[in-house]
C-alpha cells in the first residue's frame, strides 16, 4: 500500500456574496464557533475538533476559495511539493510560512479542475472538547464533495498526484460511474466527486457526535427555516447517515454521523447501482433520489477555477 503524504482533511474556504447572512447562519444555527474575524472574513471552528477552524467564509462572488489538507511534517511538505512539481502540477505558491490565522508552513496548488488546494503542517491547534450527549452541533468537518463535468479525469488527478484511493462508487444502471468516494486515510472518504453539468461545490458534510445528536441537529435546522433537500436517511457507501440542507448562499450542507472507518488491507471497492434504492438510503426514510433532488446540489458554476483567492 502506498504511503500517503496527505494525512487528513482540515478545512474548506468559501466565498459568498451575502457574507454576514451566511456567517450568522453557521454560527447561530449550524453550530460552529467563530474563532477569528477580519473585515469580510470569518474563521469558524467545530467544538469537537482540534483544527483551528474547519470553515472559512469570505465576502466576494460565490466560489470555492480552497480546500485545506494536513501533512505530518515539513519534510513531508517538501516531499509532496517536490512530487507535484515533478509531475507538472501548477503551483499557486511554493512551500512557505503561512501568514493567515493559525499560521503553519505549506503550499498551494491547483487541482486538475482548477480548485485551489493547500497542504500544511505546524499550524496552531485549538483545544477540542467532548460534545455533550444530545448536543446538536458538529464535532468536525467530515468531507467535501465536488461536482465535475469530467468525473473520471477529476478523480484520477487525486489518485495520481495525492495517492487517494477510491473506496466505493455509485453507478448508473448501464455501469457508468456517477460518483467516486475517495480516501486519504482509513476514513471511508474525505473527498468525493460527483458527475455534474459543470465544476462546482456539491456539498460540505459535518460530523455529529451520534445518531441522537444528528437527529436533534436536523430538527434544529428545520426549525431555523432552512430547507431540507434530502433526508433523513442512511447511505450505503460509507454507511453514514445524511440530512442535506441549503445554506442561505445556496450551498448544500450536510449533517452526518457514523461514517465508516475501513481496513485498507482488506477493503474492496464496491460499485453501487443508484437504481437500487437501498444504495441511496438503507432505511427507506428519505425520498427516493430523483433528477430534481440531484439538481439542487449542482450549484452555481464555480467561477474561481484557476484563480487563486486573495487570502
TrEMBL record:
For this protein, the record's SUPFAM superfamilies field holds:
Glyoxalase/Bleomycin resistance protein/Dihydroxybiphenyl dioxygenase
Name recorded for this polypeptide: VOC family protein
Domain VOC, by residue range, is 8-122, 140-258
Matching Gene3D superfamilies = 2,3-Dihydroxybiphenyl 1,2-Dioxygenase, domain 1
| Entries under PANTHER family matching the protein | GLYOXALASE FAMILY PROTEIN, METALLOTHIOL TRANSFERASE FOSB
Query: PROSITE patterns annotated for this entry?
Result: VOC
The domain of life is Bacteria
| UniProt xrefs under InterPro entries | Glyas_Bleomycin-R_OHBP_Dase, Glyas_Fos-R_dOase_dom, GlyoxalaseI/FosfomycinResist, VOC_core
